[in-house]
Amino acid sequence: MIETPTHTTEPIVTGSSVLGVQCVDGVVLACDTLASYGSLARFQRITRLHQPAPGVVIAGGGEYSDLQQLFRITDNIFRQEFCQEDGYELSPRALHSYLARVLYGRRSRMDPLYNSLAVAGKGRFLGCIDLYGTAFESEAVATGIGALLALPLIRKQWHAALAMDEGVRLLEECLRVLYYRDCRALRSVQVAKVSDSGEVLISEPYELSNLQWKVAQAAEEV
Amino acid sequence: MFRSQYDTDVTTFSPQGRLLQVEYAMEAVKQGSAVVGVCSATHVVLAALKRSFSDLAWHQRKIVPIDEHIGVAISGIAADARVLTKRMRDECLQHRFVYGDAMPVGRLVHLVADLCQKCTQRISRRPYGVGLLVAGVDESGPHLYQTCPSGEVYDLVGMALGARSQSARTYLERHMDEFSSASREALIRHALWALNETLASAKDQHLSAENCAVGVVSIGDDMRFHLYEHEQVQPLLDACAFPKSGGTATETSTEQAPQNVTDSDEHHDATMQQDTP
Question: Are B186 and B175 contacting, i.e. CB atoms less than 8 angstroms apart?
Fold first, then answer.
């Protein structure tokens, strides 16, 4: 009897949620800068956002080494595309599909990359992929526990005329809620903005302000 | 055909710097029945003359849809063409599966070219004896490409391959200024007119719904390759208003050779060699 390898079915160093929202003039992604070792907030200034090419940003949670590997894979296919030298470029949608195939292929080999990803790109593209290769596009995405805690908040406040600055404020509010309630979240966060024309702005890590810990008391009283 | 001590394998250069086996493969392309391709700013049209090798047989297929947005016209050894077109279909499907998107035409053509080139550098291989006219659209617009057994690729506004195709090329060269702004109907007419030039007059051949196929693909909302065969071709032929005689007067008729015979039609080869790119 061949033993099934199990070392890849348990993540060790992990990132938490990633949030994304489509706005009227672009797409916004946000996540914190923490990679936890179990419940220990081990690496507090790592980046989980990555820009592999002009006009594309991917962000991910889950096993951090697998995430780095996915970033390398993405860099690689963009490099290969560049070397074809034929003027075609890989669209964000094509990258989204490609990564979904990679993740699905790995999970089918019982050797999954333990991540969930959000892909944002020019032309207002926003998509989401999980470790099984499930992939979809949506005007609002959230991975990990953010899908439970943040997504309802984003959907509630989302409207078709949402500007990118409003989008950033909306995601900051969600990150605040996640910091209150997700034990693997951090106060230090990063935001990426991808405009319709493909201009990418990834912020330096900054601390969330206006944290109200009085809610903790309220939660205890319930 | 002359014989040379340098033409027994594909990898040995002649003292003149030529690969004779590859050149012979290029000759096989000229034995096939004629195909024509024209490209405007919005459309690409393929037209082909189909042969039947016996009165008892159906006419052979000359235009093959590859994917929703790409079709090819073939000239040369049909069996080789089948292998190449099958590979092209597989690649397009693979591209759709991985990227969720249609394959860029240029990518596909260069892939085929690499495949052809490999056959010119290995002693154990035989070059594909087939030339393809590839018509397709992608994000960068409409494209018409030609591939050769040598592995070369040409990006074109108009081209004709196959038997007696020189007269079609002459027609295309004469009218090439009109192509870029031509409407769909006008472009189809140009393609069929050019194809009509390749007919042998003495045999009293004419283009008909049986022996003719047309493929059209365009940019815009549709972006699909449409193939017209049999009775669907008739309206397109009717719109052309060919002169009654058909074909050019300069060509003398020869028995049309089946596609995989490479030693007939020698006097045609002599006239066509000069315009091999």
Answer: no
Tokens standing for residue B113:
């070219």
**How many Cβ atoms from other residues are within 10 Å of residue B260's Cβ?**
15
Give B24-239's CATH code, choosing from 3.90.1150.10, 3.40.1190.20, 3.40.50.300, 3.60.20.10: 3.60.20.10
B223 φ/ψ sector (left φ>0, alpha ψ -120 to 50, else beta) = left
Q: Evaluate the CA torsion angle A166, A167, A169, A170 in order and state its sign.
A: positive
Minimum-distance CB partner of A88 among B97, B98, B107: B107
Residues of chain A in contact with residue B106, where contact means CB-CB under 8 angstroms, are 86-88
Residue B221: pLDDT band with limits 50, 70, 90: confident
The predicted structure's pLDDT at residue B204: 58
C-beta neighbour count of A73 within 10 angstroms = 15
Whole-angstrom distance, CA of residue A192 vs CA of residue A58: 9
CA–CA separation, B147 and B214 (whole Å): 19
Q: In this structure, are residues B67 and B73 in contact, taking their beta carbons and an 8 Å threshold?
A: no
Q: CA A19 → CA A120, B82, B252, distances in Å? A: 11, 49, 74
Extents of the domains making up chain B: 24-239
ipTM: 0.90
The Cα of A97 is separated from the nearest Cα of chain B by a number of Å equal to: 5
Q: Which CATH superfamily is domain A7-221 in?
A: Aminohydrolase, N-terminal nucleophile (Ntn) domain (3.60.20.10)
Between residues 62 and 91 of chain A, which touch chain B (CB distance below 8 Å)? 84, 86-88, 90-91
The question of whether A14 is a catalytic residue gets the answer no
